[in-house]
Amino acid sequence: MSLLPIIGITMGDPASIGPEIAIKALLHQDLYQICRPLIAGSADVFKNIQQKLNLNVQINAISKVADAKFEFGVIDVYDLKNVEIEKLQFGEISAMCGEASFQSVKTVIDLALNNEIDATVTGPINKKSINEAGHHFAGHTEIYAHYTDTKKYAMLLVEDKMKVIHVSTHVSLRQACDLVKKERILQVVELLHNGMISLGETNLKIGIAGLNPHAGDSGLFGTEEAEEILPAVEEAIKLGYDVEGPVPPDTMFAKAATGYYGGVVAMYHDQGHIPFKLTGFKWNAEKNQMDSVKGVNITMGLPIIRTSVDHGTAFEIAGKGIASEDAMVLAIESAVQLSKYRKSVAV
Fold first, then answer.
1. Planar angle of CA 107, 112, 118, nearest 5 degrees
2. Residues 159, 280: contact at Cβ < 8 Å?
3. Which pTM value belongs to this model?
4. Phi/psi at 344 (nearest 5 deg)?
5. Interior angle at CA 185, CA 183 and CA 186, nearest 5
6. Biggest distance spanned by C-alpha atoms of the chain
7. Three-state SS for 9?
8. 3-state SS, residue 121
9. Helix or strand or coil: residue 170?
10. How many C-beta atoms surround the C-beta of residue 163 within 10 A?
């Protein structure tokens, strides 16, 4: 047991489904056979969820990692004591919840940097609540980059055969077009290649999307392909990467879903997220809810491991006990895999 990696899991926004999916994930006994999970957040929030859902688990509030029991049936919570439970309203934006979720993230970053835990997994946060608390970040990725002093990083989404990395993420579409540059594309190709290897992917062929319709159609619909993307592809080939592009994204993602590519490069947020979520998110029209939400978000380029669920706070169903923990389980499993790989190359 003592050899298993310690995985620090953030609470997410306490008004969201974050605490629910964290506690539900740790009801999967098999996770305790591959890691030692530890949640960072408010113990009162998890006691509230445990009582509301009538779950047969014990909440073990601790103030240091050494006090964790790491036993199935016991939820170890690194207690930050930062939520006034009587003021908590599910589904509502608030500075209190923003501060609590931010401190949960900052705590696992600090624990990982101090080598007290082996990897971090994040639950969903609400960006408006975070900003109302005075922390002006666009999202998790930017928080991690800031507090680890990381300059070259990228968001990698993973679900079954689909692995998507992004040239840009949380910027306007107009800004995203300006960020399509040769140097940045080469950065994310390297990050994707390394990420695929660390996840155990054997197919290292990378597809690189075009930016414009039909990948520019020989300059008829834009010049970014000829001026930035193609030169990046040619340079990547010289560097020894197995890449193809620029590929029209409507074709590229159809091939990626079959495993033709081991991973693909998207030029901006929605270009990568929409096809990715089509493969991992299963909507039930009759019940008007998601049956399953699968997909892992990994921040590549950091000195510590960070994986995350790739879905939002789902305020509309928070506190109702119907949220799917699938993505959280996958995020924990991915963190374990990345931890094993990192330890193997460090030997």
1. 130
2. yes
3. 0.89
4. -70, -35
5. 65
6. 63
7. strand
8. strand
9. coil
10. 24
Q: Which has the closest alpha carbon to 101: 143, 145, 65?
A: 143
**Neighbour-count burial of 308, counting CB atoms closer than 10 A to its CB (0-12 exposed, 13-18 middle, 19+ buried):** buried
Beta strand 74-79 pairing with 58-62: parallel
Scan for tokens 């509230």, then name that residue: 48
Distance CA 181, CA 167 (A): 9
* Residue 175 tokens, joined: 């800004």
Q: Which domains does the chain have, with CATH numbers?
A: 6-150+302-346 (3.40.718.10), 154-276 (3.40.718.10)
Distance from C-alpha of 113 to C-alpha of 323, rounded to nearest angstrom = 31
Q: What average pLDDT does the structure give for the chain?
A: 93
* SS3 state at 245: strand
3-state secondary structure 57-102: CEEEEECCHHHCCCCCCEEEEEECCCCCHHHCCCCCCCHHHHHHHH
Residue 307, strand partner residues: 121, 298
Torsion angles phi and psi, residue 57, rounded to 5: -140, 160
Cβ neighbors of 103 (< 8 A, separation 6 or more) are 80, 82
Q: What is the pLDDT of residues 159-214, one digit of tens each?
A: 888 999 999 988 999 999 999 999 999 999 999 999 999 998 999 999 999 999 99
Structure token digits, residue 213: 């319709």
DSSP 5: P
Give the C-alpha separation, 298 to 277, whole Å.
Answer: 15
DSSP code of residue 262 = S
pLDDT, tens digit (0-9, with 9 covering 90-100), for 14-40: 999 999 999 999 999 999 999 999 999
| Single-letter code of the amino acid located at 196 | M
- If you write DSSP's letter for every residue of 288-337 in order, what string do you get? TEEEEE--EEEEET-SS-EEEESS---GGGTTSS----HHHHHHHHHHHH
